[in-house]
Write a structure and sequence with these properties.
This protein is mainly alpha-helical. It is built from three helices and three strands, in the order H-E-E-E-H-H. Helix content is about 75%, strand content about 10%. The protein has a three-stranded antiparallel sheet. The relative contact order is 0.11.
């Protein structure tokens, strides 16, 4: 976006141009770009929305991971019960399912951590922008 605006600056001094949905005022003598406050507000709202979505995804993935972990514990108990009853085939199948459930729980937990990390980084960006304005 900025290289395109810079080229317009050279060709059209002191012109209000539209880049995407943003109005940009270009001053060629200083090569400065002054973006309207509505653009800043829209960016802040977009960052806040992305932060909210990342938090929501982190919570959802974390809850899913907890449910899957609880299911893995239940499957372990079921496998032990099957072994006690002498049904090794069922116990083996249950333990295979338990391994898959644990893998899904770990994967969901990793997604939760990634989304939580993203939410923290977005919160930092939002705070920095608020301090700057």
């Amino acid at each position: 976006m900025l290289p395109h605006a810079s080229r317009q600056c050279i060709l059209h001094p002191l012109k209000v141009s539209k880049i995407g949905k943003q109005n940009v005022v270009v001053k060629c003598c200083t090569s400065e770009l002054h973006v309207s406050t509505t653009v800043h507000k829209n960016e802040a709202l977009a960052l806040q929305e992305e932060h909210t979505l990342a938090l929501r995804a982190a919570r959802s993935c974390s809850a899913r991971s907890e449910r899957l972990h609880a299911k893995a514990i239940q499957l372990k108990s079921a496998a032990l019960k099957a072994l006690q009853q002498g049904d090794e085939g069922s116990a083996r199948k249950i333990l295979e399912l338990k391994a898959k459930v644990q893998e899904a729980a770990m994967s969901s937990n990793m997604r939760a951590l990634a989304n939580a990390t993203l939410a923290v980084k977005l919160a930092e960006v939002i705070l920095q922008r608020e301090k700057g304005h």
